[in-house]
Amino acid sequence: MGLPEPPELGATALPPGTFEGEVVVVTGGGTGLGKAMALEFGRLGAGVAILSRKEEHLSAGVAALEGIGARALPAQADIRQPDQIAAAFDHIEAELGMPGVLVNNAAGNFPVPAEDMSPNAWRTVVDIVLNGTFNCSREFGRRHIAARTPGSILNIGASYAWTGGPGFAHSAAGKAGVKNMTETLAVEWGPYGIRVNGLAPGLFPHEDETAAIRSVPERRKNDGARCPAQRVGYPRELGWAATFLTSPYASYISGHTLVVDGANWQRRAMLMPEFTPIREQLGKGPFEL
Predict the structure, then answer these.
(1) Alpha carbon separation from 196 to 43, 46, 168, 257, 261 (Å, rounded)
(2) For 135-193, how does the pLDDT look when each residue is reduced to its tens digit (9 = 90+)?
């Protein structure tokens, strides 16, 4: 039977208008799960700024938000560049007002055995996932500390921050850093009224998955049967979790990372299945220098 189906798309988990008058920044909010979260904030009344370095992603995010009647603003920046982030926040503040919520969703990822990974691949993913999250958090935090106003940061993580991620050494290391940083900043910035939490998605198939992720053998084949829930997640379910954690209804929750995956990362077998090396799982031949 598995876990029940969620309410239909368009339903809200919080009272209408919960984020009325609030400004929310979602990095990487033009596609996939970032867009799904941005839409839930928009449905609850927020003005949403989509921060991305790609024009097509900015346009897609803004169009989706305007399609549900929400206020939307594109803000172009590479989150690896602190000066670009500062300029983007200046733009958002001038057009919508000071952001009270930051969702650090932007990431880079692709499956690759560690022995095949180039130094540039490692550096790029860690730079986006870990350094980019810090750069955006720092900009947001400094502005609120100086203004003596409260705020809420939500960092999008991954369950392999706890377990390691074979085939994703770069992303797993970056996400582990993000989880640790979430806990550190929650303590440092709590006295200033700034909450910092994490959200770790499980299997949430969506139309914007990268070609590298879609090409993983067996991807999307019986995905639901691979989970204790006996189904995958719907992107809106992640949006409901994101809006709750950043809302006034979670005002005493800080330093916590919520895993939304139907208990998939906690499953264990009495007898583990035979192990298949990652190279074989990815359909790669023997390694050669």
Answers:
(1) 23, 19, 25, 9, 21
(2) 999 999 999 999 999 999 999 999 999 999 999 999 999 999 999 999 999 999 999 99
The total domain count for the chain is 1
Closest CA to 103 of 192, 8, 32, 204: 32
| Of 160, 234, 249, 252, catalytic | 160
Residue 143 lies in domain: 23-281
Calculate ∠ Cα 161-132-27, nearest 5°.
Answer: 95
160 noted as active-site residue: yes
Question: What mean pLDDT is reported for the chain?
Answer: 94
* Residue at 8 is within a domain: no
pLDDT band per the 50, 70, 90 thresholds, residue 60:
very high
Rg of the chain, C-alpha, whole Å: 19
- On whether the CB atoms of residues 19 and 44 are closer than 8 A, the answer is yes
Assigned token pair, 271:
């007898």
**Alpha helices, H only, the chain:** 32-43, 55-67, 82-95, 119-126, 132-147, 160-163, 169-189, 211-214, 235-246, 278-281
pTM for the full predicted model: 0.94
Residue 194: what residue type?
I
Element (H or E) spanning 257, and its range? strand 257-260
CATH code: domain of residue 117: 3.40.50.720
Q: Is residue 289 part of a domain?
A: no
